Amino acid sequence: MNEQDLNKIKQAVTMILEAIGEDPSREGLLDTPKRVAKMYHEVFEGLNKDPKEYFEVVFHENHDEVVLVKDIPFYSMCEHHLVPFFGVAHVAYIPRDGVVAGLSKLARAVETTAKRPQLQERITSTVADAMMEMLNPIGVYVIIEAEHMCMTMRGIKKPGSKTITTVARGIYEHDDVKRAEILSLLKTN
Ligand SMILES: Nc1nc2c(ncn2[C@@H]2O[C@H](COP(=O)(O)OP(=O)(O)OP(=O)(O)O)[C@@H](O)[C@H]2O)c(=O)[nH]1
Ligand SMILES: [Zn+2]
Hints:
Blueprint: H1 3-19, H2 32-43, E1 59-60, E2 67-78, E3 84-94, E4 99-100, H3 103-114, E5 117-118, H4 120-135, E6 139-148, H5 149-152, E7 163-170, H6 176-187
Bound molecules: guanosine-5'-triphosphate and zinc ion (ZN).
């Protein structure tokens, strides 16, 4: 985000403050437009990145069973209301021909994908598709559990409600046993 874009956000935030009946020149709000611009720069920085990048470097290891990184925390912004939704992602895949990714890269792909105006379904499928394309694994299974603040603090107001999305690619699309394996691994501590 360049200086011009940051200024656009600052102006917009000043206008919002005016529109809600606040006084943007009072002491507590003086730096708010600048702070919000900085925050948007941070929470939307995934817009400039492609999660596929993280899978450009791979290792070769003779491992042909599941690799699961679970409970990856993430924060995102709902694209309809620009309020947060957050939770955990579980990313599983079965390498093909020993092509494995660094474990942190699975978490990085989730984080980068989440840092945009998003839908939970799209985060789930983007991560799965990036891994399918770059690692050509036997299969990928991504599960995301999240709480949407647009459903808790406003609107329908259902605090505690959780949304779970799953995306299965490759073998996971039609292999119930393989999917059940992941679900049972998610239950273990
Ligand atoms: N599918 C999907 N829907 C989402 C997600 N985040 C928020 N939503 C929904 O997006 C919808 C937007 O609906 P609209 O009717 O256009 O907006 P609204 O009047 O503010 O809707 P309410 O939340 O029902 O008050 C709502 O039903 C939200 O719950 C998401 O990640 N995936
Ligand atoms: Zn929303």
